[in-house]
Each structure stands twice: as structure tokens, then as C-alpha cells.
Amino acid sequence: MRLGLAEIDGVRALVALRDGVVVRPGGGLPADPLAILIDLSLRAKASAAIASAPAVDPASMRLLPPLAEFGKIICVGLNYADHAAESPYDRPKFPVFFLRVDTGIIGPNDPIIRPLISDHLDFEAELAVVLGSGGRRIAEEQALGHVAAYTVFNDGSIRDWQFKGPQWTLGKNFDNTAPIGPFLVSSDAVPTDGKGLRITTRLNDEIVQDANTNDLLFPIPELIARVSEAMTLKPGDIIVTGTPAGVGFARKPPLFMKAGDVCEVEVEGIGKLVNPIVDEAAS
């Protein structure tokens, strides 16, 4: 099942992807994709509604981020060996976690904003895990039972700000730099552990990142277990699993995104996230 949100004729509505076509299910379903995915009765109702739902006119629709409400956004750094090797850091022996905040979140086709104070806007293709149930001290062997869905994430980073100090918070949290979507893909439609999926970034139609989720240093069950040792996880929390090699700052010469570029992040079987780049407006 592939569920998302869209603004249709000025109203936020539940949408689904059926055979590659965006449809609008009826039947009184809530405009909350995650709530549907974690409720078996709502899922059954949604399946029936999707089968007969009318297609949405693309001209009347703007896709939105696919969660009605965001919980914690927990990102993982240096989780591919090739990316760790191209970075200024050693290969980690324990997952490297950092937080993003929701003011950075944008949806499919929304512009990624390059801030006026930097020309170091970088791309990072990532697979995101959306939790349908939470808990504390979750065992690895039980972790996948807490996953409701997967989606695509582009961890847009302002590199010169990221590397101003040992903490990455500011460089990873500029407004309007973190696209997510376009749909939540239910966990039963994704290979176990999210493994074996090709993950790519195209910048202006040129492939700049190309890897496979088999190459994660710390797999998804371990990430969930480690985070839950420290904090209580809740439904709607997101774990963003890391990016492979090929990022712009590590290239020679560096390749940063600029106004007029188009960035496409794709995870096999999950979806493609397309966003243009624009400069921040002068105040």
C-alpha cells in the first residue's frame, strides 16, 4: 500500500498510488496515512476504497509530505562504508545519530532553498523508516515489528555550516532543505530490513550517487534498537538511515546544488523524490 497527502483544490486530502496513478480514496478515511497503516480495520477499508477510487487531475494537486504529523526525525551519519571513506571521519564503530527538525521538511516538487549565507548546499539520498509503534529498549529481533512504512528522504546539508564545529545540528537544519516522500510504502511491500534496494541521486539527470541498501554498515533493526536504548520511540518517529558515497563536498572539484538545478533521489521500489533548487529570497 502506498499512501500520501496532497492539497487538492486547496484542501488537504488522503491520496494513494494505484498502478502508478494517484487516486483519492473515499469512504470517510482519515487524512492521515500513518494512522491507516497501523490500524488493520482502516487498512482493509482503505484497500477497498483505493481499488475504486477516481484518479486525481495532476493540475489540481500538489503532493505534500506524506505524514500528517511528524515525530522525531533521527538521522544516521556515515552509515555506508564508501561514504565514511570519502568523509573527514573514521569509519564508525557505533551508529552516528543526529536530529533534524520539522522546519526543514518539504514535500515532493517543493523547492529546496539554498540560503543566502552559503553556496555549499549538498544532496544526500536516504531510505527513511517510519515507525508505527514505539517503545523503549526494543530488541533487534523485534525491531522490524515496529516499522509501519518506508519512504525517500533527501538530507539536504549546508556543508560549510555543518563543519563549523564538531556538532552538525545547524548545517543539517536549514529551513526547507529536507524533502521527504512522495508516499509512505507499507512495510509489507518492502523487502525484509529494507535490504537489496538500489539508491540513487540524479542532479540535472546525471547520476551522482548509486549504491544499494545492502551496504548499510548498521542495518535497520540495529538502528532502532540502539536509539531505543536512549529514548522512547513513538509512532510517527522517523529514522533516516544514511547516505552512500558521491556527495558533493567530497568530489574534486566539489559539486554543490545551485538555483536552477533539479535533484532526484530514488530508492528502488519506494519512489522517486524530485525537487528543484532555488535561492533564498533577499529580505
Mean pLDDT: 97
**What oligomerization state is this entry in?**
single chain
Beta percentage is 25-35%
Percent in helix? 10-25%
**Can you tell me the CATH topology of the largest domain?**
Fumarylacetoacetate hydrolase, domain 2
- What is the highest CATH level, the class of the largest domain? Alpha Beta
What is the name of the CATH architecture of the largest domain?
Answer: Alpha-Beta Complex
Any idea what the CATH superfamily of the largest domain is called? Fumarylacetoacetase-like, C-terminal domain
Number of alpha- plus pi-helical segments = 6
Protein name: 2-keto-4-pentenoate hydratase/2-oxohepta-3-ene-1,7-dioic acid hydratase in catechol pathway
Domain Fumarylacetoacetase-like C-terminal: 72-278
Family: Belongs to the FAH family.
GO molecular function, one term: isomerase activity
Keywords, please?
283 residues, alpha+beta, Fumarylacetoacetate hydrolase, domain 2, 5-stranded mixed sheet, Fumarylacetoacetase-like_C
Please give a structural write-up.
The protein is an alpha+beta fold and 283 residues long. The protein has two domains: 2-64, no CATH class; 73-279, Fumarylacetoacetate hydrolase, domain 2 (Alpha-Beta Complex). The chain is built from six helices and 18 strands. Strands 1, 2, 3, 4, 5, 6, 7, 10, 11, 13 and 16 form an eleven-stranded mixed sheet that branches. It is globular, with a radius of gyration of 18 Å. The mean pLDDT is 97. One of its GO terms (biological process) is carboxylic acid metabolic process.
Strand and helix layout:
Elements: E1 2-8, E2 11-18, E3 21-23, H1 33-37, H2 40-52, E4 61-64, E5 73-77, H3 81-86, E6 96-100, E7 105-106, E8 112-114, E9 121-122, E10 125-131, H4 140-143, E11 147-154, E12 157-158, H5 159-162, E13 178-186, E14 198-203, E15 206-212, H6 220-230, E16 238-240, E17 262-267, E18 271-279
Parallel strand pairs: 5-16, 7-13, 8-18
Antiparallel strand pairs: 1-2, 1-4, 1-13, 2-3, 5-6, 9-12, 10-11, 10-16, 11-13, 14-15, 14-17, 17-18
Family: Belongs to the FAH family.
Pfam family, one: FAA_hydrolase
Protein name: 2-keto-4-pentenoate hydratase/2-oxohepta-3-ene-1,7-dioic acid hydratase in catechol pathway
